[in-house]
Amino acid sequence: MLNWGKDMNKSELIDILAQELKMPMRETNSIIKTIVSAMTEALVHGENIEIRGFGSFMVKEYESYCGRNPKTGEKIEVPPKKLPFFKVGKELKERVNL
Amino acid sequence: MTLTKADLVQKVYEEHDFTKYQASEAVETFLRISKLCLENGNDLLISGFGKFNVKKKRARRGRNPQTGKELMLEPRRVVTFKPSGILRNKINGG
Asked: How much is the pTM?
């Protein structure tokens, strides 16, 4: 794991987690599902997430505004929307830069 | 309300046949792997949730906003997050 040298996707994460925890992949698959759905649920309910050492997530709300289709120049009403934002934690921020 | 690491451990504990210790190990290991991946400069893609990118910023001239003094900012790496379409839709009630 220490020498992981490429981008990682969810199934690779599940595989490495299984090796590290010495558990079958169906178990770690289910653990990741639990974690991801807990985080998703929190954001859906407008809650923030704060994971010390990793980072925090918050949902920003945007009001509706008048935009334009950049291709046609046509005016369009952009409906109000919410977007999640991530702020990297201090420890991770520093270590990414080493 | 804020979701914390302790809440994640509690959820894993409730939904799996683990002890509290095992649930905590599982969450900590998940975070350790994720952080290590990003620290090594690699992106982390969690489908259905989003993608954590490590972006390389070039050195640039900056200013100290307080003194107005020019200074050179070193090249650095930053972590950004792009939410997946699925997550965005769910947050917007889709």
From this structure: 0.90
Element housing B39 (H / E): helix B20-39
E-strand spans in A1-98?
8-9, 48-51, 55-62, 65-68, 75-78, 81-88
Picking from A23, A93, A2, A25, the residue whose alpha carbon sits closest to that of residue B33 is: A2
Burial letters B44-58, b for 16+ CB under 10 A, else e = bbbeebbbbbbeeee
Asked if the Cβ–Cβ distance from B1 to A47 is below 8 Å, we say yes
Distance of CA A71 to the CA centre of its chain: 30
Of A8, A21, A59, the CB nearest to B25: A21
The distance of Cα B76 from the centroid of its chain, to the nearest Å, equals 17
Dihedral sign, Cα of residue B31, residue A58, residue A85, residue A46: positive
In this prediction the ipTM stands at: 0.90
User: If you search the block for the tokens 């997050």, which residue do you land on?
Assistant: B81
Contact B80 A4 (CB under 8 A): no
pLDDT in tens, B38-94: 999 999 999 999 999 999 999 999 998 999 899 888 899 999 999 999 999 999 987
Contacts of B25 in chain A (CB under 8 A): 21
CA B36/CA A41 separation, integer angstroms: 26
